[in-house]
From TrEMBL:
<keyword id="KW-0238">DNA-binding</keyword>
<feature type="domain" description="HTH araC/xylS-type">
    <location>
        <begin position="207"/>
        <end position="305"/>
    </location>
</feature>
<dbReference type="InterPro" id="IPR018062">
    <property type="entry name" value="HTH_AraC-typ_CS"/>
</dbReference>
<keyword id="KW-0804">Transcription</keyword>
<dbReference type="InterPro" id="IPR009594">
    <property type="entry name" value="Tscrpt_reg_HTH_AraC_N"/>
</dbReference>
<dbReference type="Pfam" id="PF12833">
    <property type="entry name" value="HTH_18"/>
</dbReference>
<dbReference type="InterPro" id="IPR009057">
    <property type="entry name" value="Homeodomain-like_sf"/>
</dbReference>
<dbReference type="InterPro" id="IPR018060">
    <property type="entry name" value="HTH_AraC"/>
</dbReference>
<dbReference type="InterPro" id="IPR020449">
    <property type="entry name" value="Tscrpt_reg_AraC-type_HTH"/>
</dbReference>
<protein>
    <submittedName>
        <fullName>AraC family transcriptional regulator</fullName>
    </submittedName>
</protein>
<keyword id="KW-0805">Transcription regulation</keyword>
<dbReference type="InterPro" id="IPR050204">
    <property type="entry name" value="AraC_XylS_family_regulators"/>
</dbReference>
<dbReference type="Pfam" id="PF06719">
    <property type="entry name" value="AraC_N"/>
</dbReference>
Length: 309
């Protein structure tokens, strides 16, 4: 029930403008990228789609079931993205699509040269903390993930630029697609560490930091302690952590505590005040403010929705 990080809505095509009820495609071509908007207005199964480039797809409406070679099939929902490799074929089911519940998906086709140049620049100018894990775009193990606010914001700007008629739009598009790639790699780095930290705790200093935060979530956690675990100065740790993962250590601690608070709020007998302290917050007003900021609703309303469902 958390707030999905969705780009701003894109209007559906009027029925008379649809050339197909299954994966109707609208294309916006710029020098730096190609933006596609796909819509499906009826049920369909085993629909193949290949874009020829590395593609970042993002679900906006409805539900798909994705079949990618070598991986189990999975449901694909709004607020999620999938990176598809060059010349890889997606096979897609649309089990619920109809006129009232169409699916809508963004697909950003990214030139190979742009990916290579961005990755090379990062590895040369801003190398990652672990030399054995250089920057790269993963199209296999961490290719399906929930969007972060930063990635969503970049996608929104790409959509805006695709409709822009100004003379400098292609220049801005070039910078924005590079930013999107950085945000995308940061998102994948988060997925690697936040969901698989135990596997990497002895080989990645930030995995050890994540493990410590999860194990001491209800205690006072200082940046000094975390930087000590990472074998870095406080300033270097803070800077490199944010550069690699796209958020600060403090922001990550807040997100983890809010996730724990949401879990506790699902208990019908738990009070908001009790949840606040059990999740590691020491001030109920601050807890309520953060919860509303991140989730869009108050803890009390979240609890009522959980009980009602």
């Amino acid at each position: 029930m958390s707030t999905a990080h969705l780009p701003a809505p894109i209007a559906l095509r009027p029925p008379q403008q649809l050339t197909s009820l299954v994966e109707n495609r609208t294309v916006y071509s710029l020098e730096a990228f190609e933006l596609n908007v796909f819509e499906t207005h009826r049920q369909a199964h085993q629909v193949p789609l290949s874009m020829g480039h590395v593609v970042l797809t993002t679900m906006l409406r409805g539900k798909k079931v994705m079949h990618l070679a070598g991986r189990p099939s999975f449901e694909y929902l709004p607020g999620e993205s999938v990176v598809v490799g060059e010349n890889e074929t997606m096979v897609i089911d649309f089990p619920e699509a109809d006129e009232a519940r169409p699916t809508q998906c963004l697909a950003v086709a990214i030139p190979t040269d742009t990916i290579r140049q961005t990755v090379d620049l990062l590895n040369e100018e801003q190398p990652r903390a672990e030399a054995h894990l250089p920057w790269h775009l993963d199209t296999t193990d961490h290719a399906h993930f929930q969007n972060t606010p930063e990635l969503t914001g970049t996608l929104e700007r790409l959509v805006q630029l695709s409709h822009d008629t100004g003379r400098v739009k292609d220049v801005l598009a070039g910078f924005t697609i590079q930013e999107m790639l950085v945000r995308l790699m940061q998102t994948q780095a988060r997925q690697l560490l936040f969901h698989n930290y135990q596997r990497h705790a002895t080989s990645h200093r930030f995995a050890a930091v994540v493990q410590y935060i999860k194990q001491h979530l209800t205690e006072q956690i200082t940046v000094e302690k975390l930087s000590e675990l990472a074998c870095m100065s406080k300033a270097t740790f803070f800077r490199v952590f944010k550069r690699e993962l796209g958020l600060t250590p403090v922001e990550y601690i807040i997100q983890e505590r809010l996730a724990e608070a949401k879990r506790l709020l699902r208990n019908p007998v738990a009070t908001v005040a009790d949840v606040c302290f059990r999740a590691g917050f020491n001030n109920t007003a601050y807890f309520q403010k953060l919860f509303k900021q991140y989730e869009g609703i108050t803890p009390g309303l979240y609890k009522k929705q959980c009980v009602a469902s």
